[in-house]
Amino acid sequence: MRFEFFIAARYLRAKRRQAVVGVITAISVAGVAVGVASLIIALAITNGMRRDLQDRLLSSTAHVELMRVQDDGIRDWRALLARLMRLPHVTAAAPGLYEPVLISRGARSGGALIKGILPAQEKTVSDLIQPTIGSVAPLNPDPGDDGQTTPSANSAIPPILIGYDLAETLDAKVGSAVMVISPQGELTPYGLEPKYQRFQVVGIFHSGFYQYDHEMAFIRLADAQRLFGEPDIISVVSFKVDDLYRAGKVGHEIEQAAGPGFLTTNWMESNREIFRALALEQIVTFIVIGLIVCVAALNILIALTMMVMEKTRDIAVLMSFGVRPEQIRRIFLFQGLLISVVGTILGLILGYGASWAGHHYRFQLDPQVYSLDYLPFAPRAMDGVIVALVSLSVSLLATLYPSSSAARVLPAEALRYE
């Protein structure tokens, strides 16, 4: 053990007459530990929210969506779909027809965004139609049906797949009948009359993402075209690509291949504000909670300053025995470093332990406010390295003044009245 490190470790063992210094030292260690733990937990939460939001968005939505610039729908979509599927980087595509509707069951009702789909193709671009209750099989068209409306489709109540929160609003279960009312009505002598159709709930999905669970519903494409009075028209073509971070570039290529009058959006553009807010929140959280580490560093400065004042005679004796000023400086630098290292290690253990507990036990959230139904934790090893370096650096800066003061002690002056 180095001489300076040995003396620094001995000085940190508070004797009875150094009780105040010992208490301040313990407070300094606790301050560093709390600051480091708070940073680890805060970063784990922001990383978890970003990860879960991105994963759920990507599993619930397509990477790229193609629409008409003018809202008149996409005609001849089969040939267009077959041609765009051959583009590089496109792995899957599915047609869809979106319309806002009102869904009611008895006295209960709720607004929803209904989408007409071909389930076999929709499964390749979205995981939403994987119901947790019921089955998606009734949504499958008859063999050979490619989405066109057929006369036989009117012979039975058509199926519908709804979100979990929408089902709670309607008090609907698998097998329940609901009424879907479309604002795309028919003009009569008495004015515009909304169109309505009874559907039977065949499945309920639960994505954990409130906007989808509360607002989305799926029906067969042929049923949607008939309900909205749009014969053989779709409103959007959804795509999956092989590299989700190149969705913007691939979307531009799809737009060019589709020809004039088409426009594409991608998942990054649609959710840009959400991820920008999360990134800003992570930076602000790091700065604000990092102030706790700065306060702990001030405690280290106070503790070492009091230690220098208490040990002035000891420092003078050491210098009279030939200990150099730079060695005295290193003694108090090691003291501050020891306080910081112990506090940082305790903080890392506490922070990662709390993050593991939060991930394991899952604290519930209000999905209407946070879009997620539980608080996600995603601690990363790199965050621990960064936090530890910041903590050690700030604490080391706090030791510069007291260690320099100790090195400037004059032995003759300190021992004059001893």
From TrEMBL:
The keyword Lipoprotein applies. The chain crosses the membrane at residues 20-45, 283-309, 330-357, 377-401. It is found in: Cell membrane. It comes from the Bacteria. Residues 25-256 form the MacB-like periplasmic core domain. Residues 287-408 form the ABC3 transporter permease C-terminal domain. GO terms for cellular component: plasma membrane protein complex. It is a multi-pass membrane protein. Keywords: Cell membrane, Lipoprotein, Membrane, Transmembrane, Transmembrane helix. GO terms for biological process: lipoprotein localization to outer membrane. Belongs to the ABC-4 integral membrane protein family. LolC/E subfamily. PANTHER family: LIPOPROTEIN-RELEASING SYSTEM TRANSMEMBRANE PROTEIN LOLE. This is Lipoprotein releasing system transmembrane protein LolE. The lineage of its organism: Bacteria, Pseudomonadati, Acidobacteriota, Terriglobia, Terriglobales.
